[in-house]
């Protein structure tokens, strides 16, 4: 038995865990002093079940939550080029954070996490778009051959006529939609030369004799009428293909 316990006459006190941990009166005194210091400190009281909203708000504010939703300072977050949070989105995040009792630091962490998710989603979508665009370009180059650059110029020119701006970005925006590009290319081919001239686009691309011969051979050597309108009577594109073949023969016979 410790010296402290020997001095205590009440048996019930001797068995108390709060007493038995001390060996001497001095130890007990020091423990009492430290306990009083802790009791004297102002602490943050966790609301009990059924606490009023005022008590709950006081608790959250004491932990570091701004008193008002607009009190959250919006941090600078890293987002992909051209992507930004709208004022409405920011207000929504502030409101959600305030209702959850988040501190400023927690609010910043939430926004940074969400910005990272947005960035990752953007990168995945952009990678898929770029693959689709490259696949579409490959298909069009295979189908149009040496006419690819000219046909693409026609399609993009018609897009400009339709009111699209920022011509240099048109291929970035529509490059993965080969069906639309082909449709605008056909629309341009059906326009008059004068109309195309206003766009700075010749109706027929001027090819070298070698390039013209390659395209002409491709037309003349594909005898399946289901694949080549040149040989299919009554096909809506037959006359266009015949005219194209005539133009190609003229290019082949040009003297360079």
Task: Spell out the key features of this protein.
256 residues; mainly alpha; 13 helices
Q: Uncertain spans, ≥5 residues at pLDDT below 50?
A: none
Query: In total, how many beta strands?
Result: 0
Largest sheet: none
**Radius of gyration computed on alpha carbons:** 40 Å
Overall outline: rod-shaped
| H/E element order | HHHHHHHHHHHHH
Please, what is the oligomeric state? single chain
Distance separating the two termini: 119 Å
Structural class: mainly alpha
Strand-residue fraction? under 5%
Helix percentage range:
55-70%
Chain-averaged pLDDT: 80
Number of helices: 13
Summarize the structure.
This protein has 256 residues and is an all-alpha fold. The chain has helices spanning 3-6, 11-14, 17-20, 25-40, 53-63, 87-100, 104-144, 148-161, 170-174, 178-189, 193-197, 209-221, 238-252. 62% of the residues lie in helices and 0% in strands.
